[in-house]
Amino acid sequence: MTDVIAGYWQERASSFHHAQAHTNWTLWHDIFAPYLNPNDRTVDLGCGTGFLSRALGQKHSPIGVDLTAGMLSFHPGPCLQADACALPLLSDSIDAIIGRNIAWTLPAAAWPEIARVLRPGAQLLLADGPWGCAPAPAGVAWREHYLSAYNEDTLNALPLARATSDTYAEFLCTFGFTDIAVRELTEVYDHELVHGTMPGHEPWRQFLITAVAPSNA
């Protein structure tokens, strides 16, 4: 399953990167920056082409981690290629893990790794949505590849592919995370209604998930 998903995002890298012209970078900066300390060692998990690095700017400069070399070839900052299920990072070494549209496509095996590398009391900060429930992409060349990679069997195997706000909280609790909060990113949805979103997609509900890493991971 991981190889199939990685193959899809490898092929999508260029089109994904160049489809971000609609992005309101200030909007995304203001969603993430209040939670982050510039002196923290922050990892952007599933960083793709560096969306959050561009939004946050040099003040925060997260370390990007992604499974696909194609995505990382567009990344503007420090990054490394790695599988979220086997992160090449020391235990208790990271002050914050951030991510955008990555939780929905992570297998269950990634979450103990996330808990392992975060220091006790560190921040988990994710913007995501139930993309497994979203309408299939339309009018784009990569539609069939998407439907093949994210078929019903794949979506059923991904624990957060169709997550609700309650699902995120219950799921993270099982890995020892505390102080879990989920809020709907209405500002993103409203912006996309007016200005549009990435080709093939339509505005979709998204959440901001915050949590504190366990002390005994």
From TrEMBL:
Gene3D superfamilies hit by this protein: Vaccinia Virus protein VP39
* CDD domains, A to Z: AdoMet_MTases
The UniProt record lists the Methyltransferase type domain at 43-125
Annotated GO molecular function terms are:
S-adenosylmethionine-dependent methyltransferase activity
Q: Which Pfam families match?
A: Methyltransf_11 (PF08241)
Question: Which InterPro entries does its entry note?
Answer: Methyltransf_11, SAM-dependent_MTases_sf
Q: State the name under which the record lists this protein.
A: Methyltransferase type 11 domain-containing protein
Q: Which organism is it from?
A: Corynebacterium aquilae DSM 44791
